[in-house]
Amino acid sequence: MVLSDMLLFKDNADPSTRLAIAIHDETDRQLGELQCLDKALASETGLVEDLTDWRNAARTSFLTQFEARPDRTATWLRNVVLAAPDRILFIVRSTGGERIGHIGISNVSDEKAEIDNVMRGRRSGERRMMFYSSVALIAWIFETLRVPVTQLCVLSLNTGAIRLYDRLGFEEVERTPLRRIDEPDMTRYTTQADHGSAAGFDYLRMEISAERFRRLYPWVYAAG
Question: Which stretches make up the N-acetyltransferase domain (predicted)?
Fold first, then answer.
């Protein structure tokens, strides 16, 4: 797959032809699906409001922290999510169609892809939904994008997310101290040592190789 294909997925305006990835557990029971956030889905009633609420609830998990607003979320969807050739955001849906959360891919290249924006917005449905959603997406990354490594970055104080990534099989490969910068209506964290003040926590980079993933999740491939 080339990056232009990712833009084609997002340019879709017909829900019946939307890129969707089925979410299964070890028994091959379908739990829901990942739906590519394309032009049609971006205008779905209530979506922007959900994304805004979820972002505010998880504010301290981001490098850039601010009070999200629907207009700002809509601009982000239009100018970043839909426009970037190396990024896709997937909405996590239950089998009943309920929006549960989202998970994305960014910085896609021939060498790697990054998981980002892993967020559960609703607690209804399958308890381990984000685990199985991550498995489904990582399998798609390795088998469709054909990259050798999937990476992610996480704040060291986000222990819940780190536990999830450990369970998935990610391993820490780099740890960088963060610096805090306070601005009007926003707090930013950076790895640049000559900016701001010490944050007191780190930025972790974790990764999993295609070989390790296939070894840990043979049931994904057995189920096809």
Answer: 49-171
